Amino acid sequence: MATTLSEIQKRLKAINDDGFNIYMMLNKLKKDLKRKDDFPDDLIYRFCDHYWKYKPTNKYIYFLQSFKQVSAQHTAEQNVKEGEKFKKDSKHTPQAMKDILKGMFG
After folding, report:
1. Single pTM value for the model
2. Domain boundaries, the chain
3. How far is 34 from 87, CA to CA, in rounded Å?
4. Across the chain, which distance is largest between two alpha carbons, in Å?
5. Is 40 within 8 Å of 3 (Cβ atoms)?
6. How many helices (H) and strands (E) does the chain have?
7. What's the CA gap between 57 and 37, in Å, rounded?
8. I need a surface site. Which of 61, 70, 91, 105 has the fewest CB within 10 A?
């Protein structure tokens, strides 16, 4: 999902203007998770879409549950991409690993 920084900033500002301090929540979550880097842009973009789709009433609880859900989905997709890349790079993959991957993914 190719998005520009300005698109993401517009979406975050719209959520903030809707009465939910998204910037504070992202920073709090980042601190709680002891992350040094920011959340990936496409993860933030997905969360914004999710927010507007469901328009929560209890925004704090919603944020925690929704962000966990879109984060898990994002991580799963990244793992699949990495697995496909690993699968294609056959010269560095031991034969046993190739057999395992072939059995799992065909």
Report:
1. 0.59
2. 5-105
3. 32
4. 55
5. no
6. 5, 0
7. 30
8. 91
